[in-house]
């Protein structure tokens, strides 16, 4: 047995049996998928606060989410919006998987989430109380609501899941890392893992913190603000929301008699120090050291025991920053060859959701596998010079894909890849 507790040569098949989506494209996996197929964007002028005094005024907000209707009243006051999203998405994922935690052994259920900003909006309000009215006005729940692990803790408590629980903080890449960890936990005694990620940092404090990266788009037209791999790309749009997924062993799902959206076939991660020295947006690709992304892709494929030719579509990280888009396109081309695999980025409809982004991409990839289509990247015009990839634009492509590679890069250099495969669920096909 290794230090991780995994027996040598032993690996359970990890399948996803439930999806819970809270996204700018809609609440619920069905509504989100309808928006993806229709190319219906969730981007618009920020309404959660007046953005007039900020250079970034377009974002992807979750429409119609009322925490009081989705979350127990006590928790609405005690937790941040990113935890509200996760609690609602976790409920949906469990219902979708027909999984009743009360009927499963409590120590065999785990929770692993990704977190990026923590409870930003909650923290901002408490700081306002501190500086405007004094320390006695700061609520006791500030001590936990801001915390990166708040979502994992609250989901675990709500559903009585007392197995291994944790949180991974790798910004945009965290959602893939959480699912990679979920897969490992199935090999160490867990039978069901609630995993994924959400983020909700669309408040003045959160926006200012994000602006320090210099990567956010200042374009006021929502249809032109986030155009990854496009010749006019000029940064990305922030968003909120994400997805929670029920991951369990194929054997466990079969015993429960539930179908699976797909299987987690392979995972790898790395760190790209070059990302810490990335040039400002609008400049050419960085030189120097080779991007770690190609290596991460190859290791994820090796973990899945698949050759590049067996991958049917790639969900790109799609930074929207020309240098980073070019680096990603070159990594994909290096592994698969020029134009050899369809590449898509449905996140142009939602913006980049930080901790929620990669989890939502995986949910979308699983829905695409179940539907037999490659969703398109909406809104793009002319592909940027040097991006020799088969970018799916205009409309979805029905090719009956059986595998998908999801890529994610987090601020600072976090780089991850996850391979997912189709399963026995095909009710989305028309």
Automatic annotation (TrEMBL):
Coiled coil: none annotated. SUPFAM superfamilies: Thiolase-like (SSF53901). InterPro entries: Beta-ketoacyl_synthase, Ketoacyl_synth_C, Ketoacyl_synth_N, PKS_Beta-ketoAc_synthase_dom, Thiolase-like. Keywords: Acyltransferase, Transferase. Pfam families: ketoacyl-synt, Ketoacyl-synt_C. It comes from the Bacteria. The keyword Transferase applies. Belongs to the thiolase-like superfamily. Beta-ketoacyl-ACP synthases family. This is Ketosynthase chain-length factor. It comes from Streptomyces yaanensis.
């Amino acid at each position: 047995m290794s230090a991780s507790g995994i027996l040598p040569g032993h690996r359970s098949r990890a399948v996803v049996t439930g999806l819970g989506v809270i996204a700018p494209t809609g609440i619920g996996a069905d509504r989100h998928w309808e928006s993806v197929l229709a190319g219906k964007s969730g981007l618009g002028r920020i309404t959660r606060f007046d953005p007039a005094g900020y250079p970034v005024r377009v974002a992807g907000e979750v429409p119609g989410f009322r925490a009081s209707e989705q979350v127990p009243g006590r928790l609405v006051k005690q937790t941040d919006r990113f935890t509200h999203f996760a609690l609602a998405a976790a409920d949906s994922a469990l219902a979708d998987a027909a999984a009743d935690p009360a009927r499963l052994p409590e120590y065999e259920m785990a929770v692993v989430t990704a977190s990026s900003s923590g409870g930003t909006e909650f923290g901002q309000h408490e700081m306002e109380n501190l500086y405007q009215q004094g320390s006695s006005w700061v609520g006791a729940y500030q001590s936990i609501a801001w915390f990166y692990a708040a979502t994992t803790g609250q989901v675990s408590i709500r559903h009585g899941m007392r197995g291994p629980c944790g949180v991974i903080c790798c910004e945009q890449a965290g959602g893939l890392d959480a699912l990679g960890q979920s897969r490992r936990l199935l090999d160490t005694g867990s039978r069901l893992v609630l995993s994924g990620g959400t983020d909700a940092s669309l408040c003045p404090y959160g926006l200012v913190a994000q602006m320090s990266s210099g990567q956010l788009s200042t374009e006021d037209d929502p249809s032109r603000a986030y155009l990854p791999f496009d010749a006019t790309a000029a940064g990305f749009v922030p968003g909120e929301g994400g997805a929670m997924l029920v991951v369990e062993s194929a054997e466990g799902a079969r015993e429960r008699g539930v179908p699976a959206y797909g299987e987690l076939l392979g995972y790898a991660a790395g760190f790209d120090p070059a990302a810490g020295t990335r040039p400002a947006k609008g400049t050419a690709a960085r030189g120097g050291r080779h991007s770690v992304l190609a290596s991460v892709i190859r290791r994820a494929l090796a973990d899945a025991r698949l050759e590049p030719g067996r991958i049917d579509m790639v969900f790109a990280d799609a930074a929207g920053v020309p240098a980073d888009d070019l680096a990603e396109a070159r990594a994909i081309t290096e592994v698969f060859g020029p134009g050899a695999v369809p590449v898509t980025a449905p996140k142009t409809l939602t913006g980049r959701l930080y901790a929620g982004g990669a989890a939502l991409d995986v949910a979308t990839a699983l829905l695409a596998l179940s539907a037999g289509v490659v969703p398109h990247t909406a809104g793009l015009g002319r592909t940027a010079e040097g991006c020799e990839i088969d970018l799916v634009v205009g409309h979805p492509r029905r090719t009956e894909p059986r595998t998908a590679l999801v890529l994610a890069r987090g601020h600072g250099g976090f780089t991850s890849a996850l391979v997912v495969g189709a399963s026995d669920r095909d009710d989305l096909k028309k």
